[in-house]
Amino acid sequence: MNVIRANKKLLGMLLGVALCFGMGNAISAQYSIKIAYENNPGEPIDKAVNEWAKLFAQKTGGKGELKLYPSSQLGSKKDVMEQMKLGSAIITIADGGFFADYVPDFGILMGPYLGNDYKDIFKLAKTPWFAEMNDKLAAKGFRILTSNWLYGTRHMVTKKPVKTPEDLKGLKIRVPNNRIQIDAMKTMGATPTPMPLGEVYPALTTGVIDGAENPIPVLYGQKHHEPAKYLILSGHLDNVSQWVTSESYFKKLPADIQKALTESADEAGNFMTNIIQVAEKETIEKMKKEGVTVIEVDRKLFREAAKPTYTHFPEWTPGLYDKVQSYLK
Fold this sequence. Notes:
Elements: H1 2-28, E1 31-36, H2 44-59, E2 64-69, H3 77-85, E3 90-94, H4 96-99, H5 118-124, H6 128-139, E4 142-158, E5 172-175, H7 179-188, E6 191-194, H8 200-206, E7 211-215, H9 216-221, E8 230-246, H10 247-252, H11 255-289, E9 293-296, H12 299-306, H13 320-327
Parallel strand pairs: 1-2, 1-3, 5-6, 5-7, 8-9
Antiparallel strand pairs: 3-8, 4-7, 4-8
Helix pairs in contact: 2-11, 7-12
């Protein structure tokens, strides 16, 4: 009888553990958020998003979950942001160029050669000016969760060698579909050709475009260097990205989940900044081994050629460029 009682007691304990485990799984899905991005698995941004998902789960004790959708699985950035406006539980990576559709002054963050390096752009994110822009964006339905993700310094791959801005004339270069980056590339001398990231490789192989621009690990991860064998180290943009979600959805989350989401996002941003800098150096060497010619250019020439970009946006607040530069001194 004692053995039977002992076995019943053990069975009860095992059932209790099983129930707790089952409840734990249920709790883990309590706050499930989709996170959409264009980049492919294995790229630095993908590694950092995986780190974010891990940190968020830890900080919420398993109640929070980020479900990853790389490679544009949920559609284009504009499609995803429209879903957000409707209150969907989605996060996506964006930047000032895309936010400019809703708050025009945001576009300057993606201007060519705005600061000396990415640290200047990080500095801007902590200014009263940025806080004001953030509030205006929230009024349009979007909540910025973090602003310290270094997506990378943007360079170009081309099918022909480029050493000066004059060499860009006649070249169709893919850019993201936002006005500031389209204008900057045109001002530097090329023919900007906006298209989704996922369409760039076939466009390069079929000759629809002559080149593309992006951070080096992205160019490599998307295999753009295979049909375009020249890497032009123009460094025309220190691309600091933000992750954004629906303002209405964010407000519905409990305060502790909100805090865990933003804190884990910032921590993953630090992780991203570290790995992207290492990846850039390593990827250049990989490209060289795969037959890519690396061209160092005089960036002063490109900076000077691009500067008129900042006079092409009459919808910006008067004196915006000077105001932003005042924070960088």
